[in-house]
Design goal:
Blueprint (H helix, E strand, L loop, with lengths): L4 E5 L3 H12 L3 E5 L11 E4 L1 H9 L3 H7 L1 E3 L1 E6 L5 E6 L9 E5 H14 L4 E2 L6 E5 L2 E5 L5 E5 L1 E4 L6 H4 L8 E2 L2 E9 L9 E7 L3 E9 L8 E9 L3 H7 L1 H11 L4 H4 L9 E3 L2 E4 L4 E2 L2 E3 L5 E2 L7 H18 L3 H30 L4 H11 L8 H10 L16 H4 L5
Parallel strand pairs: 1-2, 1-12, 2-8, 5-15, 12-21
Antiparallel strand pairs: 3-7, 4-7, 5-6, 9-10, 10-11, 13-19, 14-17, 14-18, 15-16, 16-17, 19-22, 20-21
Helix pairs in contact: 1-4, 1-9, 2-9, 6-7, 9-10
């Protein structure tokens, strides 16, 4: 295939990674971002072996490890009885895998600096309203109908509320999830916590409180932790009206050790309400547009796969185009490469979510008694580790990737 002119809508992790892969493959790429100054949105996230392998393929492994914090296990306990109801350890699988918790600003900054270093054009302050394909070219329009770019291929990385995906022939059905979470990014250097675990406390499935130590946003800054509390989105306003002190008191009752984190929260403005939806575009392309990341698929964050799936999409798209003779052939190959992995983890996320975010005491009762017993019996520990790692089915070969050498990468993540 001849080099393509490619417009990438959205300068989040998916768009930035796609720009790097495609530019390095010889295509003429430009990014289009609606904000005047591109910036990350949200608190912390957990990079799995899948996403870390993609960053390693881009040569960004050392940079992200210098900022992130190694996670070796996911541990959750019943807040009232202390019974362990979640215990997933990466080392249940051979090979030395681990997770890397990162501040969203760290992931964004690492990718953004690489894009700038390679001179990839980035146009900001442009809102996109629609795409129009004519004679094998796809034009992007702003809300006034003006053409802001005309390309051989458009990559849509504008997220779960993408207007391009919503207007496409593969527009996915959007199922808004009832449960969301309050998130805050807090200092953790002087706060007692498990530095190498995602730690959570539960009351049935209605209450979930978590602490994820995410390292630093930038070199020279102090270490941070993402603190979150699960709730129904419809109840968020009522919680706020009841007052910050009452909310803190409830958390202290469940988890007194979080007091040093709660002391740092003085205003509701420090908390971000995250909302989630389940959606999948099948196939993830239409009319000269390839959808990647949340514009192609999104779901509950219970398995921590969102950013990792987005990075895999970017790698798989570039690999598919490199093997194809035409854009159409490349898009079909991209869809085939990601189909099985995306469908599996979308399904698993839907199945796991009620066990940790729901009103069902029966499901929570089943979770609390099964995890402490069955999950310890092989092959359950290995199966859970593979699910969390994102490797229950191999996502690497079809994306043209070789899995990261964990023993070497782990030296800087210990």
């Amino acid at each position: 295939m001849k080099p393509l002119e490619i417009g990438i809508a959205g300068a989040g992790p998916a768009g930035l990674a796609a720009a790097l892969f495609l530019a390095r493959a010889g295509h003429r790429v430009e990014l289009i971002e609606r904000f005047d100054t591109p910036a990350p949105v949200g608190s912390g996230l957990l990079m799995q072996p899948t996403g870390l392998t993609v960053l390693d393929a881009l040569g960004l492994g050392p940079a992200i490890h210098a900022l992130g914090n190694r996670i070796d296990r996911l541990h959750g306990a019943d807040a009232l009885s202390g019974r362990t109801v979640l215990d997933v350890r990466y080392d249940a699988l051979a090979g030395g895998r681990y997770g890397l918790a990162v501040h969203r600003a760290a992931l964004f900054g690492t990718l953004h600096e690489a894009v700038l270093a390679e001179g990839i054009p980035l146009r900001t302050g442009i809102t996109l309203a629609k795409a129009e394909t004519r004679l094998s070219r796809t034009a992007l329009h702003d809300p006034d109908g003006e053409i802001v770019g005309d390309y051989d291929l458009v990559v849509d990385a504008t997220g779960a509320r993408s207007p391009l995906a919503a207007a496409s022939v593969v527009a996915p059905h959007v199922r808004a999830l009832a449960w969301g979470a309050f998130w805050a990014t807090l200092d953790c250097d002087a706060v007692p916590h498990d530095p190498h675990a995602l730690t959570q406390r539960y009351d049935a499935a209605r209450v979930m409180i978590g602490v994820l130590p995410v390292g630093r946003a930038r070199i020279g800054e102090g270490s941070k932790a993402a603190f979150f509390w699960s709730l129904k989105v419809a109840e968020a306003d009522a919680v706020k009206r009841a007052g910050l002190s009452r909310w803190k008191a409830e958390i202290r009752r469940y988890w007194p050790e979080t007091e040093p984190f709660l002391d740092q929260i003085a205003d509701w403005d420090q908390l971000t309400l995250a909302r989630y939806a389940h959606r999948t575009a099948l196939p993830p392309h239409a009319d000269g547009i390839a959808f990647v990341g949340d514009s192609a698929h999104s779901t509950s964050p219970q398995l921590g796969q969102g950013a990792n799936m987005a990075l895999l999409d970017a790698a798989a798209l570039a690999h598919a185009l490199a093997q194809a003779a035409t854009v159409e052939e490349g898009l079909a190959a991209y869809a085939a490469a990601r189909r099985g992995h995306v469908r599996l983890f979308q399904l698993l996320s839907l199945l796991f979510t009620p066990f940790y975010q729901s009103d069902s005491r029966a499901i929570a009762w089943l979770r609390d008694r099964l995890v402490a017993t069955v999950a310890r019996v092989p092959p359950a520990p290995q199966l859970l580790a593979a699910i969390v790692s994102g490797t229950l089915v191999d996502p690497f070969a079809k994306a043209g990737l070789a899995e990261c050498r964990w023993a070497e990468a782990g030296l800087s993540a210990a």
